[in-house]
Specification:
Blueprint (H helix, E strand, L loop, with lengths): L6 E8 L5 E5 H10 L5 H9 L3 E4 L6 E9 L6 E11 L2 E10 L11 E4 L1
Parallel strand pairs: 2-6
Antiparallel strand pairs: 1-2, 3-4, 3-7, 4-5, 5-6
């Protein structure tokens, strides 16, 4: 588990239920390096207006927020994904990326929000 997380300026977001979600410098550095297509704006929009929020089947302290997005040519559709981890009653962005589909294991039992 990460220790001594430092929050970057404007590293607070609100999710669809108005919960505060924080973004640490190390998580933002990882996102910028490994997933440069992701911006803070995409993270904010995905958290505040998701199409689905799915509880991880592997970790009970992780939720995955998905939002369907369309490229400018209106032909290519993809999902933005923000992975949020609960640490001591606080919500933290763990990572964010684009995906072609929703992770396996979607069911009524682990879907906490579905548009």
């Amino acid at each position: 588990m990460r220790q001594n997380w430092r929050i970057i300026d404007h590293g607070y977001f609100k999710d669809y239920a108005q919960n505060e979600v924080k973004l640490a410098t190390d998580a933002w550095s990882h996102i910028q390096e490994k997933h440069p297509e992701i911006t803070k704006e995409i993270i904010a929009k995905t958290l505040s207006d998701p199409d689905a929020v799915i509880l991880s089947t592997a970790r009970e302290d992780v939720e995955m927020y998905y939002q369907l997005r369309t490229k400018k040519n209106n032909k290519l559709r993809y999902l933005s994904l923000v992975v949020v981890k609960k640490v001591k009653k606080e919500l933290w962005v763990s990572t964010s990326m684009t995906k072609d589909n929703i992770s396996k294991g979607l069911s009524k039992n682990n879907c906490s929000f579905l548009r």
